[in-house]
Amino acid sequence: MCEIMTVAVVDDEAEARASVGEALSRYEHEHAGVTFVIHEYQSGEALLADYRSDVDMVLLDVEMGGRDGVETARAIRDRDHDVTLVFVTNMAQYAIHGYEVNALSYLLKPLNYYAFAREMGRCVAARRARDTVETLTFSTAAGAVRVPLSNITYLECIRHKIIVHTLDGNYEFTGTLKSFVPVLEPRGFSVANSCYLVNLRYVMSVNRNSCVLRDDTQLAVSRRRRPMLMQSMASYVSMV
Fold this sequence. Notes:
This is Response regulator transcription factor. With about 240 residues, the chain is α/β, with parallel strands linked by helices.
């Protein structure tokens, strides 16, 4: 079985991008079943302007003109909590910034292939582990965003605006709540009323007119939806 990974290589030096591309090609030849689809970018701005929600890994130069690798990584994390980030740098002290953006590792220039292959093994393993985590992908004004379902507390609809409330912040975009119901209801979410689609893992109690979340947020529950929400809660608790 062939495992295809989409990789973004970001470096302002063409020679450095070519070096990473050669290392990826060598890794493919030495590891049957792994294929890389490579997209090259000469700046952080170029990557962010064309950011794809299907990217599995970003190999990111730290020292670039304009938006550097650390700033680019922070912007990526605002959109994508799961993509694997690997810093590529001339100076080891930059590696400490990886903790800020949950980078998997860093590689020193010039690339040592054996160190590179070791980190690629970790990246492939991380991707396989991530494939078991369900996510929700949507488009905002800033670009595509991918969020683990377990991080979403509830979705809110205000007129034609959807607000996705997560543990790490909120995301807004134009849409309808009903378009998410068939996708999320089988995955542990339930409709509280026409404005709220709530993640049952965060519901602490359901009262007469509202449900209370772990952070004490209270969401209105309609009379019609209350019995269905209670039934969904009972089913969810029995399965946990």
